[in-house]
Amino acid sequence: MLRRGILTAATAVFAVGCASSTSTSLAGFSVSRPPSADTVLVFVSGSWSQEPAPREILALNADGSKVERLTSCAGATDPCDIQQAILSSDRTKAIALRSTASSGAGVAAIYYMDLARSVESVVGTRRQVSSVDWSLDNTFIVYSAPAATNGYDDLFYALTDGTQETDLTQSTTTSEPTARIDPGSRTAVYTQVDPTGKGQVFVYTAILLDAGGPGTTPLPGTPYVLGSDSDPAYSPDGTMVVFRRLTSVGNGGLGTWDIMTIHADGTGPQVIATGDVFRGAPDWGPKGIVFVETDAASAQSSLVVIQPDGSGRTVLRTESSAYGMAAPRWLP
Questions:
Q1: Are the beta carbons of 45 and 55 closer than 8 angstroms?
Q2: What long-range pairs does 252-259 form, CB within 8 A, spacing at least 24?
Q3: pLDDT, tens digit, 9 for 90 and up, residues 181-190
Q4: What is the CATH number of domain 4-330?
Q5: What is the pLDDT of residue 24?
Q6: Measured distance CA(255)–CA(296) in Å, rounded
Q7: Is 63 helix (H, G, I), strand (E, B) or coil?
């Protein structure tokens, strides 16, 4: 379990933790707002602009007919690119992974954002964070970042204000680049990449859920080789996990990826979306499994929803892949 003692402390101090962090008002140069009541998911994209631009948090309604821009940090003094965002249960706050023009190559910081007040604070220190997730009760985060000792990506736990940081994996031979917390805030499912580049799905702590597929060919620009599994996420009831598997290193360098599901005990792996396109990190909510699908040949990206058995494919939105659409998350 995810450090029960730490989680108990997280719940106790959360109310004062956010208030004590250093905040910066965005009013006047970078405003934000919560999504409307009829929106069902958020994602990041630069499609708020007619030309490719830094990505902001966008929200979408159930049939894809209305898109809303929730942030405007691209117009700030130090413009930012938002890579990932998770909203709180009341939809007024967000944890976001962001890079800025001045932060340097590969450096992305975690931000706590009060969307209703246009106020934000940096969580912890600025470093090469590759993924972050926020517990459903909004009391703590789990994220992936290089360990100070050897540079491997470890999983870290911290309160929402960045305090009580704890290295959960302390690996010396593997990296853990992605992780998602279970709906009960008790454990996490994560990707572990071994020294050969093979990504595998594990449940904390170190319980192998899926060993990946065959292959050894590297996908350039990534830590993965052919057959790697990545970006696992729990079903709403915590009994199953969805993830993606690298099936080809083609598709304009993006690779092609299948979407798969597996029971949380490691049984019954099943491919539910396949074909020669890139598929990004999936998210599983009450309305189905959502992910971004990109075809390098057409230079188009689509926001796709399917049901857990692979049926009911629905395309909610399509835009140029130059806008970098990514990281869809169902709203609470």
A1: yes
A2: 252/296, 252/297, 253/219, 253/220, 253/221, 253/296, 254/278, 254/294, 254/296, 255/219, 255/222, 255/224, 259/289, 259/291, 259/306
A3: 999 999 999 9
A4: 2.120.10.30
A5: 37
A6: 9
A7: coil
